[in-house]
Amino acid sequence: MATVDSRDNLLGISWVDSAWIPILNPGNVLDYFSERSNPFYDRTCNNEVVKMQRLSLEHLHNMTGLEYILLHAQEPILYIIRKQHRHSPTQVTPLADYYIIAGVVYQAPDLGSVINSRMLTAIHAVQSAFDEAMSYCRYHPSKGYWWHFKDQDERGKS
Q: Can you tell me the distance from the alpha carbon of 9 to that of 17, in angstroms, rounded to the nearest whole number?
């Protein structure tokens, strides 16, 4: 089983450059995403090669390796960027998705993270219920097990 490095898990952070927010559009959103201070952007990707050679983004289809593409745009508030590994001009493997809402970049959680979070929440609730039920359980060697509720003491006294 592969171990997850804490540097690879960027689900808890966000990034924003407020200077870009008024001018953000589908034409420059990848330039915004490729800013040096963005922790989500990998400088070894094909996008950097294309940018240094001053080629258009269509040249990414002929290259192999890591690349970023604009997957979806809903102007002016939402942009989705996909990090993917291109094996051939027709075959890619998605690695991560990032969404930009009002200029703030977040990493979208993968299915495993969502299921893990939901399972932990459900298990915590079940464990709390069992703990509360166990607090009402009593045992005596001569009587055995019985349930002792706080309401029984109040009814017995009155």
A: 21
